[in-house]
Design goal:
The complex is a heterodimer of chains A (about 550) and B (about 100).
Chain A lengths: L2 H32 L2 H8 L9 E2 L4 H8 L8 E6 L2 E2 L3 E5 L13 E7 L5 E5 L5 H10 L8 H25 L3 H4 L9 H15 L1 H27 L30 H11 L4 E8 L7 E7 L11 E5 L6 E3 L9 H14 L5 H28 L15 H27 L10 H23 L1 H28 L12 H27 L8 H10 L8
Antiparallel strand pairs in A: 1-3, 2-3, 2-7, 4-5, 5-6, 7-8, 8-9, 9-10
Helix pairs in contact in A: 1-4, 1-5, 1-11, 1-12, 2-4, 5-8, 7-11, 8-10, 11-12, 12-13, 12-14, 13-14, 14-15
Chain B lengths: L12 H26 L5 H22 L6 H27 L1
The chains are: A alpha+beta (about 550), B mainly alpha (about 100).
């Protein structure tokens, strides 16, 4: 490799990185939390909304009654808990023509059996808190998972992939020398660069998987459509190409004749030893192709989706319609495809892998944050010994402010909207809108504050704000425990959420202290020096940033 | 690529990037078509997914290595050649498959 290649690829790395860095920070921070979607959902669900489980076959009358009335296309879900079921059915009805990824456009319903066995259907807007955090991660901080927003994510992911390759090309010639070197010392930039390199190289496989799968998630519809025209001669869009139930004459099905949940679960378990069902999802129960998906996870297998895999079963005959998505019973090609999803969504290997992905996600967020800091630092004009203070470039000051505002604003906003989950129920009507509003209010306030004050004077206070917002998570649980009348609640089963928030708050506090020290006593020719900024604004009071 | 040490490498940002974006994408689709010819025994519902997953790695792989070319003209020439070769191979395989 020639030195010119390294120089060219350094430019590629700089520009792809700086264009995608902040969006990727949000995607990785929110994505790391999305790994623990289910614990967060339990943490944020008020105890009044919990339904006591019953032996699963006791849910059969509820299923039979509900399915006789629900629209055939609805996916009616019965959550399971071990050998029991939560006797409350859930389904969504989408407006015709709505984007099938945009769950915010759907109307949510639940059905229970009331006193005397009468069916009670309610439209219940869910809090959608964890879904909102998931959407933030899917579309890099935008509020809705729609087609255009996903294309933005696709562009960011493509830039991210090019940044990964170019970063490796730049590092390769000195990899052997630099890999095990973390030069902690007077040269702060060298230390940050070493750390950026070692985190990037060590987690490179994780990042390659994330970048490529995110591009697929953004553009798969377009790629399929084009391949269908060019390669599959239109066969892909024919219904027979997709895994479906067997077609045929449609006898009038009565949902009361369906197999009981325990029988369906038994069929799935027999098809895939080790498979642990977590939900039954009925579609077309009265239509021509009745099907129940037995969802679940298999610790011995790879799950094709974040919520696991499923066996597709005919609920009347008990015939296994498809094992293509059944973790533990897939054919090799299906397993191969599922592994792409599993490697993105951490749906393999159990709890240890979830924690690993959580840490890799946070490390990824730090990678992009440090990349932006290095960009700023590289453009710093150093003060000569005894010389006058040089005039810094305006773009570096703006980039520093944006990085601080966006990254810390995202952390603080997510923390506060999480904590709010313990205070909103019963107080507001539309919880989903409140969660979105709280996040963006904090996020944009932080960004505005960072630009108004300049990076140096905003960084430490913003970090302390993030500490306070994150501490509000365990504080809400604690208040719920001490004063149950206040509206919040505590749940011993989700203590790990509170403990993780405390650990996060401590880390943020450590960062806040270190940043404050740097701002006070670091080199004055840096964008991180408040002394340099103060003097600048004395000379030129209007903009807080260096000119 | 063999490179004479005296000749400098030109960045040619626009032409190289366009070559990577456009010709990389067409090469990726042709690569997925070639993969499909090898997966005939598999149901389309499965092989079609594998072919879709092949497109982004090939496309972005080409896009991110395109800056190694000595100049933009060479990038276009080599990638056009690769596209023609891949398309020709696909055409030839389909002829052979029909016979």
């Amino acid at each position: 490799m020639r030195a010119e290649h390294v120089r060219i690829y350094k430019s590629v790395h700089t520009w792809t990185g700086i264009l995608s860095g902040m969006a990727l920070f949000i995607a990785f921070y929110a994505g790391a939390l999305t790994v623990f979607k289910e614990p967060l959902r339990r943490w944020s669900t008020p105890p009044a909304a919990l339904v006591q489980p019953v032996p699963m076959d006791e849910a059969q009358p509820l299923i039979a009654q509900a399915l006789a009335t629900t629209p055939p296309a609805a996916r009616v879900t019965l959550p399971l808990a071990g050998d029991q079921a939560i006797p409350r059915l859930e389904w969504q009805v989408r407006a015709p023509g709505a984007d099938d990824h945009d769950e915010s456009a759907a109307r949510h319903y639940t059905a229970t059996l009331g006193e005397g066995g009468s069916l009670q259907v309610r439209e219940q807007p869910p809090s959608r808190l964890v879904e909102f955090i998931d959407v933030l991660h899917r579309v890099v901080g935008l509020p809705v998972d729609s087609d255009p927003n996903r294309w933005v994510m696709g562009v960011v992911s493509a830039l991210y992939f090019v940044a990964l390759v170019s970063g490796v090309v730049v590092l390769l010639p000195s990899l052997v020398k630099d890999f095990f070197a973390l030069r902690v010392g007077r040269n702060r930039k060298r230390m940050w660069l070493d750390a950026h390199n070692v985190v990037g190289i060590v987690s490179l496989p994780f990042h390659v998987v994330m970048a490529l799968s995110a591009v697929v998630f953004a553009y798969h519809d377009q790629i399929y459509a084009l391949q269908d025209k060019m390669i599959h001669q239109g066969q892909w869009s024919q219904p027979s190409a997709r895994p479906q139930g067997k077609p045929g004459a449609a006898p009038a099905h009565d949902p009361a004749d369906m197999l009981r949940p325990s029988q369906l679960v038994q069929i799935a378990r027999q098809a895939a030893p080790g498979f642990e069902p977590s939900a039954l999802q009925y579609t077309q129960a009265t239509g021509p192709r009745p099907m129940v998906r037995v969802w679940g996870k298999n610790p011995l297998g790879v799950s094709p989706r974040a919520m696991g895999g499923f066996a597709a079963i005919d609920p009347y005959s008990g015939k296994l319609l498809s094992a293509d998505y059944l973790s533990g019973a897939q054919t090799t090609p299906n397993l191969f495809i599922s592994s792409f999803f599993a490697l993105h969504m951490a749906s393999f290997g159990g709890t240890a892998v979830l924690w690993l992905y959580f840490l890799l996600g946070l490390a990824g967020a730090w990678l992009f944050y440090s990349g932006n800091l290095l960009w700023v630092e590289t453009r710093r004009k150093a003060q000569r010994k005894g010389g006058a203070m040089p005039v810094q470039r305006r773009d570096t000051a703006l980039m520093a402010a944006a990085t601080v505002g966006v990254c810390i604003g995202c952390v603080a906003g997510i923390s506060l909207t999480l904590a709010a989950a313990k205070w909103l129920p019963g107080r507001v009507q539309d919880m989903a809108a409140w969660h979105v509003g709280i996040y963006y209010a904090v996020f944009f306030a932080c960004v505005a504050w960072a630009f108004a004050r300049g990076a140096a004077r905003a960084a430490a206070p913003l970090l302390w704000l993030a500490v306070a917002c994150t501490l509000a998570i365990p504080a809400s649980s604690l208040l719920g425990w001490l004063a149950p009348g206040a509206g919040a609640w505590a749940d011993g089963g989700t203590l790990a959420v509170d403990l993780t928030a405390i650990a996060g708050a401590l880390t943020l506090a450590w960062m806040a202290r270190a940043t404050a020290r740097r701002v006070r006593s670091g080199p004055q020719d840096s964008v991180w020096s408040a002394r340099a900024e103060a003097r600048e604004s004395d000379e030129n009071p209007a903009p807080a940033l260096t000119q | 690529m063999p490179a004479a040490p005296a000749e400098p490498i030109r960045p040619d940002w626009v032409s190289k990037t366009l070559a990577g974006l456009l010709l990389g994408l067409s090469l990726a689709f042709t690569a997925s078509a070639l993969l499909m010819t090898q997966l005939r025994g598999m149901p389309l519902a499965v092989s079609g997914q594998l072919a879709m997953w092949l497109v982004p790695p090939v496309w972005l792989g080409v896009l991110s290595s395109v800056y190694f070319f000595r100049n933009g003209l060479r990038a276009w020439a080599w990638l056009l050649g690769a596209n023609a070769a891949a398309l020709g191979l696909w055409w030839w395989l389909r002829q052979g498959g029909a016979a």
